[in-house]
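hiii so my PI (J.) wants the whole complex modelled not just the main chain, which honestly fair. so below is everything: six entries, each one labled with what it is. i double checked the lines twice but i was tired so who knows lol
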Amino acid sequence: MAERSLQPKKVSESRTVMTEMVLPNDANAIGNLMGGNLMRWMDTVAAICAGRHCEAHVVTAAVDHISFQRPIQVGEIVTLEAVVTRAFNTSVEVYVQVFSSDIKGHNPRRCNHAYFTFVAIDDTNRTPIEVPAVIPLSSEEQDLYDSAARRREIRLILSGRIKPKDATEMRRFFAELE
Amino acid sequence: MAERSLQPKKVSESRTVMTEMVLPNDANAIGNLMGGNLMRWMDTVAAICAGRHCEAHVVTAAVDHISFQRPIQVGEIVTLEAVVTRAFNTSVEVYVQVFSSDIKGHNPRRCNHAYFTFVAIDDTNRTPIEVPAVIPLSSEEQDLYDSAARRREIRLILSGRIKPKDATEMRRFFAELE
Amino acid sequence: MAERSLQPKKVSESRTVMTEMVLPNDANAIGNLMGGNLMRWMDTVAAICAGRHCEAHVVTAAVDHISFQRPIQVGEIVTLEAVVTRAFNTSVEVYVQVFSSDIKGHNPRRCNHAYFTFVAIDDTNRTPIEVPAVIPLSSEEQDLYDSAARRREIRLILSGRIKPKDATEMRRFFAELE
Amino acid sequence: MAERSLQPKKVSESRTVMTEMVLPNDANAIGNLMGGNLMRWMDTVAAICAGRHCEAHVVTAAVDHISFQRPIQVGEIVTLEAVVTRAFNTSVEVYVQVFSSDIKGHNPRRCNHAYFTFVAIDDTNRTPIEVPAVIPLSSEEQDLYDSAARRREIRLILSGRIKPKDATEMRRFFAELE
Amino acid sequence: MAERSLQPKKVSESRTVMTEMVLPNDANAIGNLMGGNLMRWMDTVAAICAGRHCEAHVVTAAVDHISFQRPIQVGEIVTLEAVVTRAFNTSVEVYVQVFSSDIKGHNPRRCNHAYFTFVAIDDTNRTPIEVPAVIPLSSEEQDLYDSAARRREIRLILSGRIKPKDATEMRRFFAELE
Amino acid sequence: MAERSLQPKKVSESRTVMTEMVLPNDANAIGNLMGGNLMRWMDTVAAICAGRHCEAHVVTAAVDHISFQRPIQVGEIVTLEAVVTRAFNTSVEVYVQVFSSDIKGHNPRRCNHAYFTFVAIDDTNRTPIEVPAVIPLSSEEQDLYDSAARRREIRLILSGRIKPKDATEMRRFFAELE
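here's the output for the full assembly
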């Protein structure tokens, strides 16, 4: 069995692409892909990406707000791309983008995106374990890395693990708007 | 065919309960229900609830932040309950709670919850249509109704449809913490 | 692990509600929900209900006659409700009712019903185990409780475990018609 | 498009065999094929058989009592065989037998059986249509043909379409036991 | 547990028939059964047939060239028949034929066929094990038996396990054409 | 609606990547991914790739010989990559490679590969339509392009559309071995 490594890894080492054809059972009665099915695919591609980066089994800890602006139809081809943005002790944040086009490749568009957080789990005693750091290289990777701290603070507030008054980044953000 | 009514409706008129048995294919390799499958069930029960309230086909417009704190195992029974909280012109917010227990009814617990937003759609031209108001009766229903405005403001910021500086409720919320 | 209790239980303690959306793969070529899929859902909701009452794993022992009078279409919402009617040593009878409406809640109707019998099974040696008694409270619960003895007698005849001439209740039933 | 024929048909002309491998998702938490899944397979093979005999789309009208005596395990191979027994105006009764063995063909056994009734439906106006008569040839086919009248009478009582006192065959059956 | 036998077996002892109804999710956007779904059914029926002949777990080792000439539509009934043709030490070749008709039994036709090769595997150490010989009886069974040697040689070339120049049967075949 | 273009396309324009997690239902009783499920995924990724290149609906016309040398286990992550190799009038050949690793990214390996042929179909009258040429750029793409002619000749022999004696490329290939 391969040895698990905690050496920092580049984003490209765990980038994961998934392609799905929207089948009749994935859609509602008016032929639109149901939001829940898209979320399931997003979670799957993100979990595979997180597992590769962490070299561990992972469990979904949180999903940030998701908007669904552009409907996807039965018969369309959905492409999902997942990359890690930043690691925090025993968790890693994954950024998922969703693209769609028809079966002929026509009408291509970016549909939506989301941030998922996964905790790495030890195989034997099912407890959280440390994960490797992420090395951002491109400016886009650096932006995702930098903004991850703010998103994490929001998650900690929303899941009740820190008090809003201790949310330094958020308070500064809104204060600056005054 | 029944006539669609825009009369305000009580929460109880569209309350929806769904029960699912966690099967092997719903779980990851260490036997935990995958987050994406739970989200799919949450979206389904919420969509059915929204469709009943709106008397219309609906599409998922947004899902707020979801935390996953308590893992659910293969073989467990998951119960999902969805209620409408408040309507806004052409959309309705739905509150979903997730409960789990083993097949014998032992180890019952509340696992997590989320807020979904759906837009009601006209059958023929697929455009948003007006939805009935929600009548909150219990104090819990009133609380969900009142807090819906703040959650909606956050969604409008997060989906880029209003600027943070125009988020009156949020700014007041953080200002009060000073 | 929770201790299993053999204290009699009220019907409401194990009542189970399941909601399903009829998807394209659930229907035949003319868009009607296939009877077999409806039976699968009925068995699932009944098994969950029986498991809760018995606080045990259960296996389906018998299904009584089922009629299908009102067709259910793709896109409809099916609600199934299961309640225990009566316990017999190691088995429990469950009454399942099926309701349907379209996605907008229109055209609601009671579609059909059935009685399922489950045997409770010990986890370790897979043998039948004693189950708690059922406490009927409402008059409807009492009717279901009383008629359960006659249904059980029919099942014992039909599965060849008693001879028709020993079917006291049935013979009296037909004799009274003379 | 082929012309539909109402000429009487032999049983062998519509006999249908289906083979299924029991997968993890078909079983409950203790590895037994769930009764509901077996019923779904039984309905499918019976519907295909009925469609072939009637040369028409069919819908399930009734399922007689089913007992489940011998549990079937994950990984086993289930073989289902369906034959028509007799036709009645617009409906046909189908007899389904279920056999099981392990993947190596060992431990073969007959598990259970059931009688399904299907109504033939016209493609365009969805109303019941006349079906061809069944020609029994072997003595087993003749027995199934003869007993079909008694089973039909029971179904008519159980679905409330005739009064027990008008159930001539049933009353004679129980009277003879006196 | 039954003892495994290596006595030669007749073809009829493991012949396997499978019937499938083509559901919406099995087809592409223009309503044709996707080739991949048909291949999955062909592999399943062939694996069950091979398991019965070998009285062992089997794994797919190879699939020969498959042509798809006649499209199959959603709603059609597909019948697959698998028979063993010949055994080679630890493997067995299975011949699968695919037939289709509409739900009424009209428009019946032979769609395509393929040869699958399976290796029998020991339960405990997952290594290949010897399999029983095949006894061909009819002239068709004898033809399939005889031609199996040539098909095997092609497979060994195509999987790189023998060099084309050592393919005695193939070279003779093409040489005779000069 | 986008206009369909018959301009030659580069291989990279339609390259398609699909990632799948092997779930319990995808495997046989000894935990190996069933060959038929892998073939279904290969067909799906290849069909999407072909549809993108042809800007048309496509149907599977043929699959060349596939060997399965390295078993894939439940819980592993399978990555499939499809590229077009060459177009022939109304058909296109697609090369699919399959890679696998465990959920942690360990034990990565190339499992197998196959060549699929698809025919492009007109939306309205379901007849074959002309497809764009493929522009090979890398030496690997050029090799796949060059060898496609020989593979096509084999397919035409195997599907009975040309006589072996007219298989110029094959006869030369075996003649050179003398």
